[in-house]
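Researcher: Next sequence.
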Amino acid sequence: MKYKPQKNIQAVCIDSLQKERQYFLTLLYDHIVTQKWEDTSISTFLKYIRTILNWTDSNNYTDLFKTPGSFRLAYIAFTNHLNDQIYHRKIQPITASPRQRAMKDMATIHFGAEEGKHITSGIVTITFETQDEDAPEKSLVQHNTEVFLAIAKGYGSAVLEMQPYPWLLKLPNYHTYVFSSNL
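Model: Next structure:
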């Protein structure tokens, strides 16, 4: 991962770092390495985890990694918190859903896949609607194909024939001249 200086780094008092959290950090590192994610995905996932841990710390769920039961209580409370923020229009479901998903992933990472399912079972998953887009009309696809093909052929022949500028580019139902540019 490429290093980028962070503006809002939080100092950690090593003496206050619980052994369960140390164990989680080890498992988290292993998880990230085995996922082969891009840098941006890793950064986003770590930001979600940081948000979750800051929330759990400030809401007295600091022992969430000690037992599956304590994690489940924190997960329920965090999900309720996200739903409350959605209700009060502070965040959208499209923002809350990946945060909830990150906490589900944290349960799986720390307690294993089977126990992670038990921890998060029975709690409604925050969803959001995506707009289904209809396929474009066949005539539009055909027209765009003709235009793109004309552009490709026009530029290709201009380069191969070393045509001087300006040169004529013929498109379906349209003709234009191409001028050189420094952009």
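Model: The longest helix spans residues 138-160. The chain has six helices and two strands.
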